[in-house]
Design a protein that fits this description.
The chain has 407 residues and is mostly helical. It is 82% helix and 0% strand.
């Protein structure tokens, strides 16, 4: 969160921040599919450990980088290793828990990740302000905070060594679905046909979620990476206040993620995703157009909580309805589609803000994001409300006897 402020304090303009975010996003997107394919073929645990170790080292390096070439190379490095966790964390968790408990586990996992971000964001902002108050230069104070963040990431690798790489837990239906094609009493032609049908089924469902995530990614890329700049540019708030606000938004997201399974049990996963996303849209637009820091803050909190609450539900549906052998590549394609949006929107956002100013520029980006979110939510709901809705609802609630899928 503080890194783009660090870039700004180094004397670079908004274009540099956009370039760094785009380069990092492209690097991450490039690795998604290779990592997904690799994770489907070998143990995911060592890949996760390597990714965490080198991510920590990269973050430490970013705390000292000043020149443009070093900033860009470290952006590439952080993007490459970030892909390891983004692609394989969910399939790794899915392989070690029963299908009935996946949604709740994914919600807990996402909540813990956000809780760690709350501590880092709020603590980092306060520490930077305290260091500045005692006379340390703003650049040096941000470097110290970024260094501590890198060290924490590196140390966070240690618990992974203690995690057992348990065998995949299949429910009876998933086991039948995954292993039928290799049953000894089937002839080769039947097995081949079933494998082909399974492949078509998986990728037919995946493509709809790729489209959804692409739209959401493009919209998010215009707004989310720049929310801290939005508050400091438009309202000139302090680092501590901004950090507290973003941290509070993450706390509200944690709460909404934890109540997500309850909403799913009432209305089903497809409707739950649609409800969360559409309810966030008024708050998104209000944030973009208001002149009041209080209104912007409250709207930001509700938008973040509601929009992100759907993420664990997406993950659970995707994992439950794609065969085991394609979970890694399925998640990687989803992540790739989302990251393409981030990678392409950095320069666009920078151009709009530098051209139209801190009010109209952000108002335009928030409006475009709102339109894209509406398209994504509507597409998702219309595609799955009839065709797959019944299967998805039954499966996520632990009652399904066959797999389909959504994200």
């Amino acid at each position: 969160m503080l890194y783009n402020l660090y870039i700004q304090d180094l004397g670079y303009d908004a274009t540099m921040n956009g370039t760094i975010i785009s380069v990092q996003s492209i690097a991450t997107a490039i690795m998604f599919i290779p990592i997904g394919l690799l994770g489907d073929r070998i143990s995911k645990k060592p890949i996760l450990i390597i990714g965490a170790l080198f991510s920590g080292l990269t973050f430490v390096g970013r705390a000292f980088a000043i020149g443009e070439p070093h900033l860009l190379w470290l952006a590439i490095s952080s993007g490459l290793f970030a892909s390891f966790f983004q692609v394989l964390a969910i399939p790794f968790l899915a392989a070690n828990v029963s299908e009935h408990n996946r949604l709740r586990l994914f919600s807990i996992h996402a909540s813990l990740v956000l809780a760690a971000q709350v501590i880092g964001s709020f603590g980092g902002g306060v520490l930077a302000d305290v260091l500045g108050f005692i006379g340390i230069h703003s650049i040096s104070s941000l470097q110290i905070v970024l260094l501590l963040g890198g060290i924490a990431t590196f140390l966070g690798t240690l618990p992974l060594f203690l995690v057992k790489d348990s065998p995949v837990i299949h429910n009876p239906v998933s086991a039948i679905r995954s292993n039928t094609v290799s049953a000894s009493n089937m002839n080769r032609s039947v097995s081949s046909n079933m494998a082909a049908e399974q492949s078509k089924s998986d990728f037919r469902i995946i493509k709809h979620f790729v489209m959804t995530q692409l739209l959401i990614g493009i919209g998010s890329g215009l707004v989310v990476p720049y929310l801290n700049l939005y508050f400091t540019d438009r309202f000139h708030i302090s680092l501590s206040l901004m950090s507290a606000l973003i941290s509070l938004g993450q706390v509200m997201t944690i709460i909404s993620m934890m109540i997500g399974p309850s909403l799913v049990s009432r209305v089903g996963p497809v409707r739950a995703v649609f409800i969360f996303q559409t309810m966030s849209l008024p708050f998104l637009l209000l944030t973009g157009f208001t002149y009041s820091v209080l209104i912007a803050s409250v709207s930001f909190l509700f938008r973040q909580a509601l929009m992100n609450a759907a993420n664990p539900i997406f993950s659970s549906i995707l994992i439950d309805h794609v065969s085991d052998r394609r979970r890694g590549i399925a998640n990687s394609l989803m992540q790739t589609a989302f990251m393409i949006g981030w990678a392409t929107m950095g320069p666009v956002q920078s151009y709009l803000v530098t051209t139209y100013g801190s009010y109209h520029g952000y108002a335009i980006t928030f409006t475009i994001t709102g339109v894209l979110y509406v398209l994504a939510s509507t597409w998702f709901y219309l595609v799955f409300r009839n065709k797959h809705n019944n299967k998805l609802e039954q499966s996520v609630s632990g009652k399904s006897s066959s797999p389909s899928k959504p994200i």
